[in-house]
Amino acid sequence: MSAENQSPEPQASQGNPEAAVAPAGEQDFSNIEIKHSSTVNAPNQVRVDLPRVLDLGCGILVQLVLQAKKENAKNLFKRLKAGDKIALGAINIGQQAKITLNLALDYSAYDGPGFNSDVFRASVDQLVKKIGPRLRAKQDLGIRSDNQGSVLFDIPAGVRVKGFLNVMMIVMDLKKSGEITMRLSYFDPAQFQVKD
Question: Where is there biased composition of kind Polar residues (predicted)?
Answer without folding.
Answer: 1-16
